[in-house]
Amino acid sequence: MSPAGFLVTHGAGSDRNHRLSLALEGALPLPVRRMDFPYRKIGRKGPPDRAPKLIAEIVMEAEAFAAELGVDGADLVLGGRSMGGRMCSMAVAEGLPACGLVMLSYPLHPPKKPENLRTEHFPSLRVPSLFVNGDRDPFGTPEEMDRELAAIPGPVTMHWLEGQRHDPKPTFDDEIIEVVGQFVRSL
Q: Where are the domains of the chain?
């Protein structure tokens, strides 16, 4: 059975109307729900809320989306850009059901701080996971990503965007949409 819907989250400095979220909604052959985290809902521009609050919002949105579609949460794909994709992966590691994860520009570590890895939850990821990163992303080099993704027991697909950093140029949107679409159809 193919996925029933895709819950898309945003990066720390963006919101549900990021151009890539809108493009995914328009291009994917399944219902897409774009969500805002609580700090964006109240219009705050500053730093995001702490992880527990962000994860709780993902759980709430995923449960509401599944109920709206009349499906089980395990029929949803969860994911998003940077911080949002990371929070989705943490929610799934903590037990939120999903049939797949999509992480766009996964922030493996803060720039210039490779010792501060954001991978503690990787051994708990058992669902198929797609990572799409620029090969010049300061949040994680190809070598670092390859090394750390080995800790994920579920199936992992890694797609590199040539010459791109953490915010891939709009000219890469079609490539990202195609890769995400292939992944979703494979589930």
A: 5-186
pLDDT tens per residue, range 78-124: 999 999 999 999 999 999 999 999 999 999 999 999 999 999 999 99
* Residue 187, C-beta contacts closer than 8 angstroms, at least 6 positions apart: 2, 3, 77, 99, 100, 128
Rounded-to-integer distance, Cα 187 and Cα 170, Å? 26
| All residues at 6 or more sequence positions from 66 whose CB lies less than 8 Å from its CB, including other chains | 4, 5, 72, 73, 75, 76
As beta bridge partners, residue 129 has 101, 156
127, two tokens: 């669902």
The CATH class, in words, for 5-186 is: alpha beta
CA–chain centroid gap for 19, Å, is 15
Verdict on whether the full-model pTM lies above 0.90: yes
- Could you report the per-residue pLDDT of 18-61, keeping only the tens digit for each? 999 999 999 999 999 999 999 998 888 778 889 999 999 999 99
User: Is 81:105 a contact under the CB 8 Å cutoff?
Assistant: yes
